[in-house]
């Protein structure tokens, strides 16, 4: 039986005409901002499908900018997010592309940091203000932003899932959801854990020290005030 959230039943408190095109867009961008971290210099929003067709009329453009600035969907400043971005020196660009067989309300974030590092994130607004992130820097993932999340990129060999899960168990970290992705057997794979509590740096270091770990990324949960 599916568990329904308050977003599913009531819809979100928000500024704007559409839970998918406004609230969901703001939440997507806020998660993208959390993933990218501080010192964002510029953002290119690549809009797909319905987002591309109605982004101005439904306020999707303002909502996306607001989310990158860390605003919640109901923030009164959302309507003025473009001007706020200019005041903060954040460069914004909108582009349009067919991103393939994905949800109509999908956006690709191309985020450039002041260090020059570029981070690419793809996600969808799936209705009622709910969102799904499914690609980070070209890696297949699947998470909602509602939970603390760790993404572990590793060599695809037997025992890796068990070893990471054991470390989380030993550190009293409960796994809420877990997904594993790979392109080809024996090459690279990615584990995504959504947990009930923040994992912490010491736990991440334990996982890194296992061997056959290429990269580990911790993403704080979406917190809306």
Summarize this, please?
The protein has helices at residues 6-9, 19-36, 49-54, 60-68, 81-87, 160-170, 201-208; strands at 40-48, 91-96, 106-113, 118-127, 130-136, 139-143, 149-155, 175-182, 188-195, 213-219. By secondary structure, it is an alpha+beta fold.
Structure description:
This is L-serine deaminase. Residues 149-221 form the ACT domain. One of its GO terms (biological process) is gluconeogenesis. With 225 residues, the chain is of the alpha+beta class. It has 2 domains: 14-137, 60s Ribosomal Protein L30, Chain: A (2-Layer Sandwich); 149-219, ACT domain (Alpha-Beta Plaits, 2-Layer Sandwich). It contains 7 helices and 10 strands. It has helices spanning 6-9, 19-36, 49-54, 60-68, 81-87, 160-170, 201-208, and strands at 40-48, 91-96, 106-113, 118-127, 130-136, 139-143, 149-155, 175-182, 188-195, 213-219. Strands 2-1-3-4-5-6 form a 6-stranded mixed sheet. α2 (19-36) runs parallel beside α4. The longest helix is centred in the N-terminal third of the chain and has 18 residues, at 19-36. The model is unreliable at 6-17 (pLDDT under 50).
